């Protein structure tokens, strides 16, 4: 009975759960790999930037390396705490743009957005050139090809990101783990040494330490602090890309932000402690990180592992921009400050147009700079400080507005962060102005103006379309369908069948040119048409010039003038080849007619595809 009963039951299919897109989004770990490479890689040049500034005060100045780094670490803690709150308050992403839009007004939000866009684009160019510079330092024979190497790395990163942010995160987990692990091992081993294991890396290189300097002024310390703050670039990337995380997105993004701050802080402080411990001095041609690796681990395989890991992560740190900028562009397009195409997503949750736009502008910067890092570095980090300052200021107003437990302390913390990052923005801009930073000072307001122009254009379009207003009810109008034809084929039959289904009246139009060959072809078509007798009038449109689109457009325009109450539709029949390469065999007559009719008339254009399967 049981078996019979079972057989009698209808078969049921097990439905797969709907694809919510979660598998194409980030976890806390993959988010850390995808969006923190910029910040992680900054330990390769952040401490060095501090040391190079303090070197102007000689060995006495280098003694302030750790205090300056601790101040930067303190600012890092403020920023991480702030952006953790930004993530919770603005889960749609956008970072400083979203904060400013809510609390500081539209114009300030556009300044924040422009600063982020510039910083993200420059980060790609600087990261790629820095990574390739590390490669050419190891292999000098490649120096002449550095531009092509930069473009190749950019193409690689772009291709990975077009497959989805999760795929890019998975691809970059291993390099991130190797780099972070190498730096932590370097720090731990170095802390147990009383003296450098090796100084071979710096041997034979000239020191850049100033002689006979015994005082350190406040301006020098401020400049060292501002230069070292380049290590903070990328801290905001996770807050900008919250929608890229799996649910619960807020919690996962906050965990990634805290992990980023903890790792970055430990590495910065640890490296600065070793700089002071080993009495390290900056030299020409050798990075501070390379000297630390040499002193801590020795000039062995471990030294080269760290150098290779640094080179790889510097090049791949451009991925932070590919994770954060497309989301920002989506928000700007949603608010009508950029073309709406930036809001579209591909199947893998990729803002493909944002990725390609970032790659295109970055490639132009690489060509402009010739693949040289020093050309781009003066432009870098100004935008991120502007964004930091705006975000911190906006969060002060956020706490005043929303209140909550201990809101005054939180507002005070954000206010301190706004003051510090604001001062850093001014100092960095002033000190790097003549080295090329003036370009950013000019580009930032121009970008804001571009946003405003796009917004104004969308406003006019919305007014014309009546967006936000209830339109008139639809009504029927007499319709006339015009079908351009040049010969009698099955394509012509399919086009007229579609036309009589669409309109009250159908007219076939053929363009006749004055030469004898064309007149003969037109006469033959008219004879065949009369024999075929499809019940549709064939209209001859003469043209003195060897053009196709303009005569059809002129005919349609005359129809609109003689009968203004009729709705004219131009149905253009076209062949859809079975293979992509066969498109080269087409004459593109349909595209020519469509362009002329769209440009010169208000007629509806319908392009009929006849598939050659």
From TrEMBL:
It is a multi-pass membrane protein. The chain crosses the membrane at residues 44-63, 110-135, 147-166, 172-192, 258-281, 301-329, 350-370, 376-399, 411-430, 436-454. It is found in: Membrane. InterPro entries: AA/rel_permease1, APC_K+_Transporter. It comes from the Bacteria. The keyword rRNA-binding does not apply. Keywords: Membrane, Transmembrane, Transmembrane helix. The keyword Ligase does not apply. Residues 1-21 are annotated as: Disordered. This is APC family permease.
């Amino acid at each position: 009975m049981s078996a019979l009963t079972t057989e009698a039951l209808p078969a049921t299919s097990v439905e797969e759960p709907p694809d919510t897109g979660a598998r194409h989004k980030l976890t806390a770990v993959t988010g850390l790999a995808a969006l923190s490479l910029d910040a992680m890689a900054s330990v390769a040049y952040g401490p060095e930037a501090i040391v190079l500034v303090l070197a102007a005060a000689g060995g006495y100045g280098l003694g302030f390396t750790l205090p300056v780094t601790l101040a930067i670490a303190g600012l890092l803690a403020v920023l991480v705490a702030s952006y953790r709150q930004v993530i919770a308050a603005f889960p749609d992403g956008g970072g400083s743009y979203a904060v400013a839009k809510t609390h500081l007004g539209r114009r300030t939000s556009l300044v924040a957005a422009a600063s982020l866009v510039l910083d993200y684009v420059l980060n790609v160019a600087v990261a790629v050139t820095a990574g390739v510079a590390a490669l050419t330092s190891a292999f000098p024979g490649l120096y002449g090809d550095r531009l092509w190497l930069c473009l190749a790395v950019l193409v690689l990163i772009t291709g990975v990101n077009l497959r989805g942010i999760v795929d890019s995160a998975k691809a970059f987990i291993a390099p991130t783990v190797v780099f972070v692990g190498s730096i932590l091992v370097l720090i731990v081993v170095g802390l147990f040494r009383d003296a450098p294991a090796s100084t071979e890396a710096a041997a034979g290189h000239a020191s850049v330490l100033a002689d006979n300097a015994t005082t350190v002024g406040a301006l020098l310390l401020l400049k060292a602090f501002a230069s070292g703050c380049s290590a903070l670039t990328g801290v905001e990337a996770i807050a900008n890309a919250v929608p890229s995380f799996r649910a619960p997105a807020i919690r996962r993004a906050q965990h990634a932000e805290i992990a980023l701050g903890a790792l970055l802080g430990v590495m910065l402080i640890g490296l600065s402690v070793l700089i002071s411990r080993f009495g390290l001095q900056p030299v020409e041609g050798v990075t501070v990180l390379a000297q630390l690796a040499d002193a801590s681990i020795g000039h062995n395989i471990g030294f080269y592992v760290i150098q290779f890991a640094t080179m790889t992560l510097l090049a791949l740190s451009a991925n932070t921009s590919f994770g954060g900028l497309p989301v920002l562009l989506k928000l700007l397009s949603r608010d009508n400050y950029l073309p709406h195409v930036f809001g579209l997503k591909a199947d893998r949750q990729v803002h493909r147009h944002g990725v390609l736009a970032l790659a295109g502008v970055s490639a132009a910067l690489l060509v402009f700079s010739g693949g040289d890092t020093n050309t781009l570095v003066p432009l870098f980090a100004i935008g991120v400080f502007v964004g930091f300052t705006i975000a911190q200021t906006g969060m002060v107003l956020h706490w005043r507005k929303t209140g909550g437990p201990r809101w005054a302390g939180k507002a005070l913390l954000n206010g301190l962060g706004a003051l510090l990052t604001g001062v850093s923005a001014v100092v960095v801009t002033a000190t790097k102005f003549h080295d090329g930073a003036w370009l950013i000072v000019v580009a930032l307001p121009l970008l804001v103006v571009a946003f405003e122009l796009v917004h104004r254009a969308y406003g006019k379009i919305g007014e014309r379309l009546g967006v936000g207003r209830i339109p008139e009810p639809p009504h029927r109008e007499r319709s006339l369908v015009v079908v351009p034809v040049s010969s009698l084929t099955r394509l012509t039959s399919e086009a007229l069948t579609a036309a009589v289904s669409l309109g009250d009246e159908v007219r076939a139009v053929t363009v006749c040119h004055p030469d004898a060959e064309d007149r003969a072809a037109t006469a033959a078509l008219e004879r065949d048409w009369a024999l075929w007798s499809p019940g549709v009038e064939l209209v001859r449109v003469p043209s003195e010039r060897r053009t196709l689109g303009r005569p059809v457009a002129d005919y349609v325009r005359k129809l609109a003038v003689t009968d203004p109450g009729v709705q004219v539709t131009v149905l253009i029949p076209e062949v859809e080849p079975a293979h992509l390469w066969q498109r080269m065999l087409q004459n593109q007559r349909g595209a020519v007619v469509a362009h002329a009719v769209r440009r010169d008339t208000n007629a509806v254009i319908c392009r009929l595809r006849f598939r050659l399967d």
